[in-house]
Amino acid sequence: MLGTGNMNGAILAGLTRPGSALADPVRVTTRSQSSADALSQRPGVTAAALESNPDANREAVRGAGLVIVGVKPAMVPDLLDDIAADLEPGALVISIAAGLETKTIAAHLPAGIRVVRAMPNTPATLGLGVTAICAGPGADAEAMALAHEVFASVGQVVELPEADIPTMGALTGSGPAHVYLLIERMIEAGQALGLDAETATESVVQTFRGAVEMVVADPDAGPAELRRRVTSPNGTTERSIAVLEDAQLADLFTRSLRANVRRSEELAAGA
Ligand SMILES: NC(=O)C1=CN([C@@H]2O[C@H](COP(=O)(O)OP(=O)(O)OC[C@H]3O[C@@H](n4cnc5c(N)ncnc54)[C@H](O)[C@@H]3O)[C@@H](O)[C@H]2O)C=CC1
Ligand SMILES: O=C(O)[C@@H]1CCC=N1
């Protein structure tokens, strides 16, 4: 794993969490020695820092069958140019960078390197991630099976055409941030109505958790039916839902996701 920050770090945490059977040793790189020291505490993980060893990325990929690139999108091309000559022939390179298209990734790699693009999300850290994957140049069935296996060990995997990856970036890659924003705003609203911070926080978090678990536990009912069961005719929920629906939430979310996808397109163009 090259560039082990928030997202690659979450995947690594998921892969090495207690009870998950990580079959192969993992070499990871990061920029600072202090984060490399922290990462190397994980079982089966060897970490190297660029600030101590400028060759860390090149050394990490030597002999590796699978390389997951987790630096910021703008840094990916330079990183690939740096490691290109040291990659094993036929290695699988997975990029998790938002926006960056597989043709751009492949253009910075030698022929014969297999490319997969992935859009994971941070709940991978608990094994509860969602990762969308798509095949890039040279990605044969074996490469896709390997990508599937890695991300399946930290959550669910959805295989999609590349054109859908930006939408998944908006819906699931960025999705946890949208959920956290809703949690934050509900806590603030509880406080505005007089609850103390601790009570509001604990109650809202448990409400999200309980509500999500109910959707998971009863897929036949689905969220609309579960909402109906809470919303008594002429009761209290009806009033609060009416205020929320007044804000045209469906339209708001669609506009929000479109803005996210537009940024993916800018990143694809190198902006
Ligand atoms: N944060 C998220 O929830 C998600 C992020 N992504 C993608 O993951 C990638 C990383 O994002 P974050 O983890 O949020 O960023 P981050 O900044 O937390 O992590 C990047 C890491 O790369 C290290 N780094 C920088 N240059 C390096 C180099 N040349 N060699 C080795 N390490 C280097 C940094 O020290 C840092 O630890 C981005 O391309 C982003 O689009 C995709 C899905 C979700
Ligand atoms: O905000 C970003 O650009 C990255 C991609 C998806 C989540 N975080």
Automatic annotation (TrEMBL):
Q: Which NCBIfam families match?
A: proC
Locate the residues binding NADPH.
Answer: 57
**Which reactions does this protein catalyse?**
L-proline + NAD(+) = (S)-1-pyrroline-5-carboxylate + NADH + 2 H(+); L-proline + NADP(+) = (S)-1-pyrroline-5-carboxylate + NADPH + 2 H(+)
Q: Which domain of life is it from?
A: Bacteria
- List localization entries: Cytoplasm
**Which family, according to UniProt?**
Belongs to the pyrroline-5-carboxylate reductase family.
Q: What is its EC number?
A: 1.5.1.2
Q: Name one Pfam family in it.
A: P5CR_dimer
Domain Pyrroline-5-carboxylate reductase dimerisation per the UniProt entry, residue ranges: 162-267
| One cellular component (GO) term of this entry | cytoplasm
Record-annotated residues binding NADP(+)?
2-7, 30
Example GO biological process: L-proline biosynthetic process
The record places domain Pyrroline-5-carboxylate reductase catalytic N-terminal at 2-99
Q: What does this protein do?
A: Catalyzes the reduction of 1-pyrroline-5-carboxylate (PCA) to L-proline.
Q: Gene encoding it?
A: proC
- Where is it chiefly localized? cytoplasm
Task: Extract the InterPro entries matched here.
Answer: 6-PGluconate_DH-like_C_sf, NAD(P)-bd_dom_sf, P5C_Rdtase_cat_N, P5CR_dimer, Pyrroline-COOH_reductase
* Keywords of this entry: Amino-acid biosynthesis, Cytoplasm, NADP, Oxidoreductase, Proline biosynthesis
This one is known as Pyrroline-5-carboxylate reductase
Extract one GO molecular function annotation from the record.
pyrroline-5-carboxylate reductase activity
Pathway membership of this protein? Amino-acid biosynthesis; L-proline biosynthesis; L-proline from L-glutamate 5-semialdehyde: step 1/1
The keyword Ribonucleoprotein is assigned to this record: no
